[in-house]
């Protein structure tokens, strides 16, 4: 299930530097390298320590991590919702991604000019978010027109018509669409409209190399965090410059470099984990002599749908799942040992997959 996060931002905030670091980075596993599959799409493996441990225990022929895609969205200017600059391209690309990574500049540098002539991340955020709101207003006006026509012959559509009007009113106040939802059902329905302001957002504060390990005193970061908290959004602090340097290092050098900076993991790794959390994703694992592999699924999915991630026929022909918790595999010292210890469970079609499940699916003949 290819999942994408779109990286957006105004000129000279570090967006391109961050994206270039993503596409230049080297993957730990040779069979799934960081690469560029399109001029503006970078594929990166999802860091997962469990894969390393399972590989040591199982000793497979190969190890394959799951992957995530980052899309470098076209640059934005005021008036994008009306087609200014590359506005139409900007908005069409955002519609296609699952989450938005909004990069804002939180550092001063006289050598790097800002398009607005000043460093104000909240103003940057407002510029981008208002363009998303304006685009959604146009979408909702068209939806209301269509729904109104359909509602004349179907009174059951009147509640949705009322919701659509409420969403439009919310957008006209400069707020995101989901603010109009009064319960989970309305939230789910609004998300189905594919609105730009219904997509989850991570605000990425780009700071100086000297501030990346200790950004608590950065006043600009504080402002972004306060704003994000009020919106129920996540905030992440990175240094695009540091990420571009890390991308060129081998794994051992990378660990030493991060240690010198007082960091446990790179900003890219933290960004991937944040996007995973944001999208409600989990990872299950398969482990055999041929390969140890990670697979992405949506939390809450049942076993047959998760099996379908491997091959669509697996969902249709699903019989059962043989499941061992990752912790039990490690404690037992391997899959065979875990099975001997009675840790293997046989789960049916109603089983809800858990992050870290090590699975073997039994399927019927097609």
Main pleated sheet? 7 strands, mixed
Would you count the extended β strands for me?
A: 13
In oligomeric terms, what are we looking at? single chain
Q: Distance N terminus to C terminus?
A: 22 Å
- Order of strands in the sheet with most strands: 2-3-5-1-6-7-8
What amount of the residues lies in strands? 15-25%
Outline the low-pLDDT stretches: 26-33
> Helix content range of the residues, please?
40-55%
Indicate the overall shape: flat
Element pattern in H and E = EHEEHEEHEHHHEHEHHHEEHHEHHEE
Class by SSE composition: alpha/beta
Q: How would you summarize what this structure contains?
A:
By secondary structure, the protein is α/β, with parallel strands linked by helices.
Write the layout of secondary structure elements.
Elements: E1 4-8, H1 15-24, E2 35-38, E3 41-45, H2 49-58, E4 62-64, E5 67-72, H3 87-96, E6 99-105, H4 121-151, H5 158-172, H6 184-191, E7 201-206, H7 219-231, E8 234-238, H8 240-246, H9 251-261, H10 267-278, E9 281-287, E10 291-298, H11 303-310, H12 312-316, E11 318-325, H13 326-332, H14 335-340, E12 345-347, E13 357-363
Parallel strand pairs: 1-5, 1-6, 4-10, 6-7, 7-8
Antiparallel strand pairs: 2-3, 3-5, 9-10, 11-12, 11-13
Helix pairs in contact: 1-8, 4-5
